[in-house]
TrEMBL record:
Residue ranges annotated for the Radical SAM core domain, each copy included: 185-454
Descriptive protein name: Radical SAM domain protein
A Pfam family it matches: Radical_SAM
CDD domains: Radical_SAM
UniProt-listed InterPro entries: Elp3/MiaA/NifB-like_rSAM, rSAM, rSAM_horseshoe, rSAM_sf
Molecular-function annotations in GO: catalytic activity; iron-sulfur cluster binding
Amino acid sequence: MYRRIVIVDGYNDEPAGLGVPPYIDVYPRLVAGAVWLANKDVDIIYWTIDEVRNNIGLFIDQARKSDLVVFIAGPEVPGKYIGGKPLSYKDAEKLSFLLKDTFKILVGPAARYGFGVGGGSVAVERKILYRIFDELVYGDPEIYFYNLVKYGVEKAEPWKLREDYELANKALIHGAKIIKQHPNHGWNLIVEIETFRGCPRWIVGGCSFCIEPRYGRPLMRKPEDIVKEVEQLYRFGARHFRIGRQPDILAYMGKGVGEREYPEPNVEALKKLFHGIRNVASGLRVLHIDNVNPGTIIHNPEKSIKALKTIVKYHTPGDVAALGIESFDEKVVRMNNLKVYPDEALVVIRIINEIGKHRGWNGLPHLLPGINLLYGLPGETKNTFRTNYEYLKKIYREGLLIRRINIRKVSVLENTPLWMHRKTVEQLLRKHRRLYNIYRVKIMNEIDRGMLQRIAPINSIIRYLYTEKHMGEYTIARQPASYPIIVKIPGKLPLKKIVDIRVRKIAAKSIIATIT
Ligand code: SF4
């Protein structure tokens, strides 16, 4: 019999899904919803790991009086976020020691893949995590927690994955009210919404580094189920939504999944989804997307253009289509079964610019491409760094806009094709460490800065930012958005307030501004 459960959100950051504040991802909502579905009287107390650090005494007291404590964890690069500091393995060890008599369960990517440190390695493997947690739920949390509360621990299977969205849909609706306990609720909270899981490219094996194809055939949520969830979240005060939990929003309900590597975008389904969300959440302030597979656009240009225009019609400006281009080096593309060749990537960037570059009410272009680049992939040579840089220069010279260039070292996960080549990856990362750092800075100074100047020119006005924290002599403010620009305002302003700003100066990754 469970009377009280404590959830500690240690945050997740996955390729398709973000739970670092101001985001709340599906995990706490699924856990709470499944528990309440099984027994509506269970008292669930939600803490973020930052709240735990700030008030450890009260937390320990509450946690010791509860029947179990659920930890959510799984950042790829811990410690580099404005909105919060993810749970580290050290935090987990310490809390586990303080709660040695309480049943502790780990949920999220850390339970599935171990605690990561990013850049090609897994720091703490799962078998070690069993020393500090009583259970690791590496299947879907709604199945485990529903069975745990309803039928007891012997019926709860931590490995079980969903075969459809029936239980998850119910859990997400029942769990929506947990957002009211989030410290960002009422100001800049962004709710991450899941539309499907699995990659349509699983039929060709997918990209070498990616775990998504291991789910097999993609599992889709119906638009009406997603809309119902948004309606419920809206009722509990959510005003900012990101439709970000899927590897490619254009493949949502796509035609030919299972037959084609790049399904044809289903414009009707996207319209039903985005229009439906607008209908039930008429006062929302942000509706953004995240990943877009550039291959979908290249192989279905007409339908993709219609799909992107549909998104732009219903979303809010300042949105980003994050393109997993990964590399502009043809050899790396070929050897890792990536999505598009360099010239195709250029075509995609032009298309998105054409559709999304006009400015909206908040002062930013509607929809811009973001680029992800990965280093350490087999086939990489010194020339890869030059080639990537040259392509980015070319994009810049053409006058195109890119909202952000995300440069990372690849993480090698078990059960991916890359696992067989992990030694090669390690060698490449070691060999090219210097080049990696040099080109990162070069791209930041020569391209990022120029792009930001185009997107937010000096003296332009950007609206609807929240003041989030004080840093030195500045107040940091950001829009609640898919990839918000970091704005530094001189002086210490009151926090959690909405401000409009005027751009005064551009740095590579941030701007300095004054209040209008
Ligand atoms: S296209 Fe590649 S990176 Fe994207 S989900 Fe599929 S396998 Fe993963």
